[in-house]
Specification:
binds flavin-adenine dinucleotide, 8 helices, seven-stranded parallel beta sheet, 321 residues, globular
């Protein structure tokens, strides 16, 4: 059953975020040979349209407006609803990102539609689109189908592989003029952290520290390993609560959910609330001096030892590659 699927693209610093390409790949599956329309919102973003086509979108619809230069739920919902009205899609996919988590329920409510959030896999069988999503802090997975109305879902970053870039692809790029009414909130200023580094929620490699790092300085060897592997630094709540790092690095039930290719847990005991944020990582390496630590139950590779000895050894070995 061919469907038209609308996918929301996300832009940061004039670059498309990887989740935009993953949303296209998800849209392709759901469309079953129909059409994938990427929606691109912002100011001076049209030049990014061709990349969306090269990554598998059949068409791109842009809405350009100064009021869309930064995300606001008001502005984005007006623009997205206008595109939905003009395109009348059978499916809609957003990333399960900070933006997607904020915007999708608002759009679903306006459309009087259901919403399947945080999907980690999609299969299509017998005309049904089956979404897999984690429940009970990732201790179990459920499969869901939409039985009526628009198939609207958000996808967890790093779970649905994007399509390879194909520079020979072509597709229609059009713009929709939408009158964005007065916004009830505006972004006055964005204060950036001094060092941006790799975005934790999209990182392919995460080096996470727990209370075992013992201090702010204890993160230094982890940062060196992250630099060599091109990874991002994460942390347990234990490390955040102890003041060793910022809460923005917290991974887990009440922190960020990450699914990198490689997760290296250093001095983290493996509490269930931490596992909720990282247990779906593709390869998990645990370094802990306690052989009984429960992190070893989810680890693919376990190293029993002192992280301050093991991490520098790993960094040196990876440097040689
Ligand atoms: P600890 O449990 O103290 O573990 C430290 C580990 O370091 C130990 O296993 C120790 O053997 C090891 N270690 C010590 N020194 C070394 C060394 N030199 N070398 C190697 N290993 C060493 N936690 C989260 O992480 N994320 C969440 O989102 C989260 N949400 C929560 C929500 C609720 C409602 C509650 C109640 C709790 C939540 N927690 C969360 C807290 C969670 O229960 C744990 O307390 C926390 O994860 C423990 O952090 P930790 O593993 O760093 O510390």
């Amino acid at each position: 059953m061919a469907r038209k699927v609308l996918v929301l693209s996300e832009v940061r610093d004039q670059e498309l975020r990887n989740v935009s390409f993953e949303a296209i790949a998800a849209g392709k599956k759901i469309s079953e040979g129909g059409e994938v329309v990427a929606v691109l919102l912002g100011e001076n973003v049209s030049s990014l349209s061709s990349e969306l086509i090269q990554r598998g979108a059949d068409r791109v619809v842009t809405v350009e407006d100064k009021k869309l230069s930064t995300y606001t739920p008001d502005g984005y919902s007006q623009a997205v609803l206008a595109v939905i009205k003009s395109e009348n899609p059978e499916g809609i996919i957003f990333g399960h990102t900070a933006l997607g988590k904020d915007l999708s329920p608002k759009i679903a409510a306006k459309l009087n539609s259901g919403l399947i959030s945080d999907a980690t896999a999609i299969e299509v069988s017998g005309g049904n689109v089956i979404f897999t999503r984690p429940i009970y802090s990732s201790k179990a997975f459920e499969k869901k189908i939409v039985t009526a109305g628009i198939i609207f879902a958000t996808i967890r970053p790093n779970n649905i592989p994007p399509l390879q870039k194909d520079e020979t692809r072509s597709g229609d790029i059009s713009s929709l003029s939408v009158e964005i009414k007065d916004l009830r909130t505006i972004v006055k200023e964005i204060v950036r952290k001094a060092s941006q580094g790799v975005d934790l929620s999209e990182a392919k490699v995460v080096i996470a520290g727990g209370r075992g790092v013992k201090s702010e300085e204890g993160f230094e060897p982890l940062k060196q390993l992250a630099n060599v592997l091109g990874g991002a630094i994460g942390a347990s709540r234990g490390a955040c609560d102890a003041g060793y790092c910022e809460y923005s690095l917290q991974i887990g039930q009440t922190g960020k959910v990450v699914t990198p290719d490689l997760y290296i847990a250093c001095g983290i005991s493996g509490a269930i609330q931490h596992l909720a944020g990282m247990s779906n990582s593709k390869v998990i390496v645990a370094i802990n001096k306690d052989p009984e630590a429960s992190i070893f139950n989810v680890a693919d590779y376990g190293i029993v030892g002192d992280l301050f000895e093991v991490v520098p050894l790993l960094t040196n070995e990876f440097k040689k590659l």
